[in-house]
Amino acid sequence: MRQSPNRLLATVFGAVYVLVGMLGSLVSGGLAFAATQGGLLLGVFEVNPLHNVAHILIGAALLIAGLSSAAAAKTVNTAIGAVYLLLGVVGFFIVGSALNVLALNTADHVLHLASAVVLLGVGLAADKRVGHVATA
Q1: Residue extents of the structural domains in the chain
Q2: Which DSSP letter does residue 28 get?
Q3: Mean of the pLDDT values across residues 24-52?
């Protein structure tokens, strides 16, 4: 794992997102599964049960990829980074509407965009030789 930035990033981000999902359940108890407003995690990030499940599933995908191979980690980092980029942008437009089923707030958007930049940056730029056959 030391040799692959994608594996290291996927493993670290995966563990953090699983932990965030579990901690989020402590502040979102009693809320409807897809409530448009949620409890505050760390006093800043709004979460509901669906948002927590999403964090746990995303974290699990990252962890599995990071512990598997550089190619898997690169693919998952890039894919999740792209999804977070889309979510970060779209999130600004759905706040305050019935479409906000993840109970997103501005802090969430900023964090999703920051995660997207890091995941996409490493996913697209690191481990360039992964999946390529070396030629002499």
Answers
A1: 5-125
A2: S
A3: 94
Q: Is the pLDDT of residue 86 over 90?
A: yes
Number of H helices, E strands in the chain: 4, 2
Q: Report pLDDT digits (tens) over 9-36.
A: 999 999 999 999 999 999 998 999 999 9
CA 109 – CA 61 distance, rounded (Å): 21
Helix/strand/coil for 2: coil
The per-residue DSSP string of 66-120 comes to HHH-HHHHHHHHHHHHHHHHHHHHHHHHHTTSTT-TT---HHHHHHHHHHHHHHH
Main-chain dihedrals φ then ψ at residue 52, nearest 5 degrees: -65, -45
The answer to whether residues 34 and 50 touch, using CB atoms and an 8 Å cutoff, is: yes
Question: Backbone dihedral region of 81: left (phi > 0), alpha (psi from -120 to 50 degrees) or beta?
Answer: alpha
pLDDT for residue 136: 43
